[in-house]
Amino acid sequence: MKKFAFFILLLNLGIVAFAQETKTDTIKYPKAINFTLPSTENKTITLDSLLKNGPVYLEFWDLPCKNCIKELDALMPIYDSLKERGLQIIALSVDKPADEAKVKTFVKSKKWRYYVLLDSKGKVKDLYQIKIKPTAYLINQKGEIVFTHIGFKQGDEKRIKDEFLKYLPKHKPCEQEKSESEEKEK
Amino acid sequence: MKHILLLLQIVCGIVYAQGNSELNITGSNRQEFWVFKKDYAVNWEDKINVLLEYRNFSGKLGVFWFEPSKPWDEKRKPLRYFDYSLAYAPEKFEILLGNFYETFGQGLVLRTYLDEDFRHDKSLAGLRLIGHLPFNTDLILLGAKLRDVFFQENTYKIMNIQDSSDQLYGIALSNLRFGSGNAFIKVGGNYLRVNRNQDPTPKAFNELFGANLKGTIGPIDLYAEGATRFGTKLGIGGPDRDNYGYYLVGSGAFTGLGLVFEYLDYNGIGFPEGVYHYNDPPTPIRSGVAINRGVDEIGFGIGANATPFSPVFLEASFAQLNTHNKSSQVQEIIGKSKYEPVELPMIFQLGFESMHQKKIEAGTLKRNTEKPNIDLTYTIEDHLFELESEFTWVYELPFDTTEALRYYETGFTLTYGYGEGLILTFGWQFCSKDSLKRYDYMKSWPVAEIAWSINQNNILRVRIGSERGGYTCSGGVCRYEAPFTGIKASLISKF
Q1: Chain B positions in Cβ-Cβ contact with residue A106 (cut-off 8 Å)
Q2: Which of A7, A151, B386, B474 fits a disulfide with B377 by CB distance 3.0 to 4.6 angstroms?
Q3: Residue A11 in contact with partner chain B when CB distance is under 8 A
């Protein structure tokens, strides 16, 4: 039994080794699983429909998770500066059903302007195999998970912003059309 | 069992070799390794999940393996189980065979869930059909058996081991909506029948009926849920009726201000009485304390959150829960303030928590705690410094003495973080009294932890030292955590 357990341990280390980052042009990104959930604004939001408008940063959080709230607070000014360029942030609450009202009032009192979705049954949390909160994924418009961020401490938002900038156009959508037409005229 | 585990590991190992773009394979693995200083005993635990998706089909495989070192006894012994599910989910419906989690309403009739942080896995195994009807309405049908796995006394137990063959049949209609935009009503109803293996009486039955109503007008939400339980008394027969539960919530969510009020009254709705329940009604106590999980409870809670001006955030809540005859009671007051100036890279938090309990913890008649706490975070380029501190005054009256205990507990945590991947934490907890059985007669608990994000998908944590333990709760389920001295290591991987 001990030998078998040791063997399993080694195999798990092998899995860790497989999960290493490689060169960007050889990476095959995993696909994000589509889902539909209600929001705190009484709308129904589908991931695939948001991806048509720009990349999505999907963060799993709940009320007791202090670091989750720190991250969502820290990203607010970054979101405000980049939303015009197409960035969308989903704060996906995995609080239990009885805390739904508390989530809505908390989010409104915080003045968060993200899409805050309610996954009280934990279905999407289960699909994404969330073990630690916060866990966040940056999903590009092809539906691929291009960046994963697990945990949060103050200062991480700078690195997260750098990742956002890799997948956002350099100009706002209407400005982009203007600059493209200017280039065509040249 | 070994072969299944090996097969799962191989599947995980070839994930990155997959070239089929329609087949999506993801997974996670959590390994933990504990060494107890007292007797060098070891706990080893591994939980691996693999999810396969192909078009409208999905399959999930999971293996849980808990292996304590010998000698084993009735309490401390290995636990291993294998979970699976197969689902087909086109647009209009979903059918699933295997393990799943399901909650009806807010949990007065049925509540199953996975709480990883609290190590509580309460799941169903059977068949579930969900029909997606017009107006965002879902109809759920299920037939399943419960498995309730809970971690306590440093080991895992299946809490319903005596009743693992009880059959559950349920039907729920949720979110039938009338109205549109920001003014609407949602209606739901649910039913659960429990056939208990323990009760061989021919006419034995237990049924729970529930209904819920939610009204929304702009920022105001009102939610009401009621449930009742009919059945026969276990073993002796005869009607078991007049069991009910009500849960009411009113909330107002305004920009910069949130208000919540909740009220509950449970009388015999928690079922069955004992160490596990098929349902778990909500508790208003934010720390998760409940008295008997829906058997005999009445209480309320009020909460408010506000951002009066930009760098300041305030929270306050008051909640009370007691039995109908007030023989047991818990009262909680929480206040928090957070100041995060734009011009400085710091966050300052000041808080206060008060908890007064009567006949909540085993062996304790009364326990009152008053706890101010402070948290300061400062960032200098890639370096993070965080100091957390709390001071708790305790008044405790055990059952077996008339002499009250007055003492204090204190704790400090200093955290240093560098760059993206490294966090070092040093902590120390102290109790002024050394004659407390609850803390194994110890007074001081120093601890050090390193958390290393090896890469985006792997996190390693190693913790060395002591933990005070104590009474801890989540969502109405509580346990007593024994003090720990030794080493804890965990590796969490995603792929």
Answers
A1: 258, 305
A2: B386
A3: yes
Residues of A numbered 78-107 whose beta carbons fall under 8 angstroms of chain B's beta carbons: which are they?
Answer: 96-98, 101-102, 104-107
Q: What is the ipTM score, two decimals?
A: 0.88
CATH of the domain at A100: 3.40.30.10
Q: How far apart are CA B28 and CA B19, in angstroms?
A: 20
The two tokens of residue B485 are: 């001295």
Mind listing the pLDDT tens digit for each residue in A114-146? 999 999 999 999 999 998 899 999 999 999 999
Domains of chain B by residue range: 1-66, 89-282
Q: How far apart are CA B466 and CA B448, in angstroms?
A: 9
Say if A55 falls within a structural domain.
Answer: yes
Of A73, A122, A132, the CB nearest to B114: A122
Of B340, B377, B475, nearest to A96 by CB-CB distance is B475
pLDDT at A20 over 60: no
Token output for B63: 């293996």
In terms of CA atoms, which chain B residue is nearest residue A136? B456
Cβ–Cβ contact B255 with A under 8 A: yes
Give domain status of residue A124, yes or no.
yes
Residue type, B50: V
pLDDT digits (tens, 9 = 90+) for B100-125: 999 999 999 999 999 988 999 999 99
Q: What is the rounded CA–CA span in Å between residue B357 and residue B328?
A: 8
Helix (H, G, I), strand (E, B), or coil: what is residue A183? helix
Across the interface, of A42, A108, A126, the residue whose CB is closest to B254 is: A108
pLDDT level of residue A24 (50, 70, 90 thresholds): very low
Task: Report the number of distinct structural domains present in chain A.
Answer: 1
